[in-house]
């Protein structure tokens, strides 16, 4: 009888382990899906921010190029005014 009781306890313990493993797997699947959705959402925001950053960088470079001649002209005017005094 002791052997049968021991086998029954082992069997119940293994069944409990299987049930626990199954519960974990059932919890992991939705958690993984949620994580993927959140990461995808964040990636969209990051991609948009990177696009905006590239546009701003391009505009800054364009303004620097366009402002250079004005800065040179201003320097010449300042020199002319100083020489006039």
From TrEMBL:
Write down the superkingdom of origin: Eukaryota
Q: Which GO terms describe its cellular component?
A: BLOC-1 complex
| Parts forming coiled coils | none
Enumerate the catalysed reactions: L-lysyl-[protein] + acetyl-CoA = N(6)-acetyl-L-lysyl-[protein] + CoA + H(+)
Question: What is one process in the GO biological process aspect for this record?
Answer: endosomal transport
Describe the function of this protein: Acts as a protein acetyltransferase. Negatively regulates aerobic respiration through mitochondrial protein lysine-acetylation. May counteract the action of the deacetylase SIRT3 by acetylating and regulating proteins of the mitochondrial respiratory chain including ATP5F1A and NDUFA9. Acts as a regulator of mTORC2 signaling in response to hypotoxic stress by mediating acetylation of RICTOR, thereby protecting RICTOR against ubiquitination and subsequent degradation by the proteasome.
Per the record, the similarity remark reads: Belongs to the BLOC1S1 family.
Name recorded for this polypeptide: Biogenesis of lysosome-related organelles complex 1 subunit 1
């Amino acid at each position: 009888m002791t052997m049968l009781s021991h086998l029954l306890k082992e069997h119940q313990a293994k069944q409990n382990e299987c049930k626990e493993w199954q519960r974990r797997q059932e919890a992991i699947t939705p958690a993984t899906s949620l994580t993927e959705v959140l990461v995808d959402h964040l990636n969209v925001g990051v991609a948009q921010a990177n696009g905006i950053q590239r546009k701003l960088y391009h505009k800054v470079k364009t303004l620097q190029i366009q402002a250079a001649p004005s800065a040179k002209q201003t320097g010449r005017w300042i020199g002319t005014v100083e020489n006039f005094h």
